[in-house]
């Protein structure tokens, strides 16, 4: 008898390699080729991988306990059986396959189940409390084994924010550890392995690879007990210091990498700009220093021998931040929900045609794009507008003035993502046009020298009547904004109150003079003014993305605001 | 002008949980868990199919579960909990993929979109029925095959560690596992065919 050849033998072999974790890139490419070419191959791949997933759940991790709904557990599973011996042969007299104890990694189900069942509700409520009172824990947050979430740090005490954690293994497993969006106070920050992306509230970005032991001393200074880090220092934050035992590097407007040993020896490289590399006296003052520039050699600081030298070398330094902006994926009902709220203008940034973004409200003006603005590629049918870095003039504006009635009020709504903590304008209105006489401003803040009285890393809502360059009423968001995370913002005048909502949550409102009259104004997105100067008084450019901008000639209700936020964050988990 | 406390919203937001708030949290937890525990396997299988690296799939599942918990509204729960979880998972996988360019198994966007699209309408694939049939097919495996599977699939195991544990060569273990997977897959297909479900 001749056996018929298995037409999918090659595909099965490739899937086996995938399941065994031994597939080469060439094998993965071949598997893709086969799957994309034949729906039967695709079906085979899907059913094989689903079977593999079910087998992993059967054998690899203890299953979650089932509820009281009378549902039968899968065949062969004894839900009352405790974890069986790990790794040993299973007696055929008992259940045919054991349930190894799960050590190490928790399944998501056990994580949530354990959180719910804990006597203190803090573990479960922690994310809920944190969501209302401060930055979110965000995806990837881990509960400490003790069930305690990381304590909230007030912006007044916070020095840096965790922006991203990539396979970070902490030094102390039983202590609560921070997650993306958490503020770090003065003190130690240690981890065994992985990569952490942090931002000082001044906007200095740090990428740190473990094993690392940092100590945040102030907004301008970090002590590195050991570790590898890369710092990018934006304009206005020059003078940032990374020090070690007897050594220091002072930034002079740059991007640099440092590898620091526990004895204070440092090796560094300047990628952009320049730094001052220094040996310190016992008193912590500079004993000897040298200026190091970009495109030069590696430099080494040896505090024991009071030496600083530049030398050729091939040391490995931390690579630049590889954080990528997630897409903003909207529920299919988002557009309808906004239109139901009767906006005066609604721009979705689906396309820029001849420099113009169409208004979803018929007969109402488009936005005009100025400068090198571009749109992202479509992701699940949505595109967003990108404000790139650099000293360029870029913004969006209308070619007519906007005059919203002071009573009953008006609202500005948008989604934004910032790539950094920095002082940057989201929405500004000026009277007259092409000045920096502001009437309404929604902007992101940072701890910068020109704004010492502003709450840092927050969204600031300014209303200024009459329009001008100073004075006015200020509202700061309760929640901080987190780089590389989408946030929903509504700033509105509601009768005699200023109201600000971030991610659906209200900030305590501020009363304003009901007799103030708002004048027709120039409307801008992404920049403080149209004036082509690049300092803080005129520019404050946004570096990031924006989408779904809507103007209303009435205030929105909290239900409408929360509904819009929910429809914009549910599909993809964007914040 | 000073900040207007208005209706004391800020005090309410930062007060510790008590009474009514605690009830609300537990109520949400029960509503979420009852759905999540039933859906978790399907969501994990979805993730593993698009991101066929066990550790990465577990990481993404953990991220997805946290997002689902945060987004879950017990008064307005998603109609199809699994589909909702899978939608969230899809975008976490895309994000993970962009961050993990150096990993060996990184599917192209075309592959992700195609397979995700097929899974979105996966009724004809009878994935739930296949999972039920797997339990029966596992019982039909010989004892040694079950033990080998258990050894290979336990947390942290590899083909090499399994080979050392059972005292056979890596090549023999690899081929045995391939044979077992094919046997189970064929058994499942026969079981569905016998019930007239293919």
Describe the structure.
The complex is a heterodimer of chains A (575) and B (198). With 575 residues, chain A is α+β, with helices and mostly antiparallel strands. Chain A has seven helices and 28 strands. Chain A has helices at 9-20, 25-37, 39-60, 108-117, 122-133, 334-340, 558-569, and strands at residues 160-170, 183-184, 187-200, 205-218, 221-232, 241-244, 247-260, 266-280, 286-293, 298-302, 307-311, 345-347, 356-357, 367-370, 374-375, 385-387, 395-397, 409-418, 424-430, 438-444, 459-468, 473-476, 487-494, 497-502, 505-506, 510-511, 522-525, 544-552. In chain A, a hairpin with a 5-residue loop joins strand 7 and strand 8 (266-280). In chain A, helix 2 (25-37) crosses helix 3. The radius of gyration of chain A is 28 Å and the shape is globular. Residues 62-106 and 114-147 of chain A have low confidence and may be disordered. Chain B is an all-alpha fold and 198 residues long. Chain B is 73% helix and 0% strand. Chain B has nine helices and no strands. Chain B has helices spanning 9-14, 20-50, 54-71, 81-99, 109-120, 127-140, 143-153, 159-166, 170-194. In chain B, helix 6 (127-140) crosses helix 9. The relative contact order of chain B is 0.07. Classes of the chains: A alpha+beta (575), B mainly alpha (198). At the A-B interface, helix 1, helix 2, helix 3, helix 4 and helix 5 of A face helix 1, helix 2, helix 3, helix 4 and helix 5 of B.
């Amino acid at each position: 008898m001749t056996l018929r050849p298995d037409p999918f033998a090659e595909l099965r072999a490739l899937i086996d390699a995938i399941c065994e974790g031994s597939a080469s890139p060439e094998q993965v490419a071949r598997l893709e080729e086969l799957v994309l070419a034949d729906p039967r191959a695709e079906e085979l791949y899907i059913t094989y991988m689903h079977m593999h997933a079910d087998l992993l759940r059967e054998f690899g991790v203890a299953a979650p306990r089932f509820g009281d709904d009378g549902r039968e557990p899968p065949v062969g599973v004894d839900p009352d059986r405790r974890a069986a011996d790990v790794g040993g042969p299973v007696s055929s007299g008992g259940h045919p396959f054991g349930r190894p104890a799960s050590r190490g990694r928790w399944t998501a189900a056990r994580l949530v189940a354990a959180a719910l069942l804990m006597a203190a509700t803090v573990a479960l409520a922690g994310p809920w409390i944190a969501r209302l009172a401060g930055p979110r824990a965000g995806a990837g947050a881990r509960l400490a084994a003790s069930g305690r979430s990381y304590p909230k740090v007030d912006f007044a005490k916070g020095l840096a924010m965790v922006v991203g954690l990539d396979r970070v293994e902490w030094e102390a497993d039983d202590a609560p550890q921070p997650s993306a969006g958490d503020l770090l106070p003065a003190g130690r920050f240690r981890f065994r392995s992985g990569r952490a992306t942090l931002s000082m509230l001044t906007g200095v970005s740090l990428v740190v690879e473990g094993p690392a032991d940092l100590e945040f001393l102030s907004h301008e200074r970090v002590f590195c007990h050991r570790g590898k880090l890369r710092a990018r220092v934006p304009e206005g934050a020059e003078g940032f210091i990374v020090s070690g035992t007897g050594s220091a590097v002072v930034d002079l407007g740059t991007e640099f990498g440092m590898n620091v040993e526990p004895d204070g020896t440092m090796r560094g490289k300047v990628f952009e700009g320049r730094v001052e590399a220094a040996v310190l006296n016992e008193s912590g003052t500079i004993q000897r220093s040298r200026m190091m520039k970009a495109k030069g050699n590696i430099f080494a600081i040896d505090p024991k021998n009071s030496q600083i030298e530049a030398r050729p070398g091939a040391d490995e330094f931390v690579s630049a931040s590889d954080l990528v902006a997630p897409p903003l994926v909207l529920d299919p009902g988002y557009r309808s929900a906004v239109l139901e709220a009767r906006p005066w203008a609604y721009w979705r940034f689906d396309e820029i045609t001849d420099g113009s973004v169409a208004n979803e409200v018929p007969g109402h003006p488009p936005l005009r794009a100025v400068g090198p603005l571009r749109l992202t590629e479509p992701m699940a049918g949505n595109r967003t507008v990108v404000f790139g870095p650099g000293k360029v003039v870029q913004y969006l504006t209308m070619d007519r003035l906007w005059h919203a009635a002071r009573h009953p009020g008006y609202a500005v709504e948008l989604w934004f993502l910032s790539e950094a903590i920095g002082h940057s304008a989201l929405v500004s209105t000026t009277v007259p046009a092409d000045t920096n006489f502001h009437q309404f401003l929604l902007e992101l803040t940072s701890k910068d020298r020109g704004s010492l009285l502003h709450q840092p890393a927050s969204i600031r809502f300014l209303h200024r009547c009459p329009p001008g360059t100073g004075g006015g009423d200020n509202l700061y968001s309760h929640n901080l904004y987190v780089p590389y995370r989408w946030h929903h913002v509504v700033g509105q005048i509601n009768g005699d109150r200023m109201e600000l909502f971030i991610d659906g949550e209200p900030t305590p409102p501020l009363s304003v003079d009901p007799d103030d009259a708002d004048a027709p104004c120039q409307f801008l997105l992404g920049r403080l003014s149209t004036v082509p100067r690049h300092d803080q008084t005129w520019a404050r450019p946004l570096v990031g993305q924006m989408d779904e901008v809507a103007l209303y000639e009435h205030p929105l209700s909290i239900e409408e605001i929360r509904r819009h936020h929910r429809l914009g964050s549910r599909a993809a988990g964007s914040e | 002008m000073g900040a207007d406390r208005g209706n004391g919203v800020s005090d309410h937001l930062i007060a510790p949980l008590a009474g009514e708030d605690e009830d609300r949290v537990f109520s949400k937890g029960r509503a979420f868990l009852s759905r999540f525990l039933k859906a978790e396997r399907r969501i994990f299988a979805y993730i593993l199919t698009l991101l066929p690296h066990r550790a990465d799939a577990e990481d993404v599942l953990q991220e997805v579960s946290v997002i689902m918990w945060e987004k879950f509204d017990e008064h307005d729960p998603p109609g199809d909990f699994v589909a909702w979880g899978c939608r969230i998972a899809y975008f976490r996988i895309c994000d993970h993929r962009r961050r993990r360019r150096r990993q060996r198994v990184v599917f192209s966007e075309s592959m992700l979109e195609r397979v995700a699209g097929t899974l979105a309408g996966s009724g004809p694939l009878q994935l739930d029925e296949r999972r039920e049939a797997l339990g029966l097919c596992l019982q039909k495996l010989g004892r040694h095959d079950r033990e080998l599977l258990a050894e290979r699939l336990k947390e942290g195991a590899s083909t090499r560690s399994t080979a050392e544990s059972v005292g056979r060569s890596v090549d023999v273990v690899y081929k045995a596992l391939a044979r077992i997977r094919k046997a189970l897959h064929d058994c499942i297909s026969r079981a569905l065919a016998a019930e007239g479900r293919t």
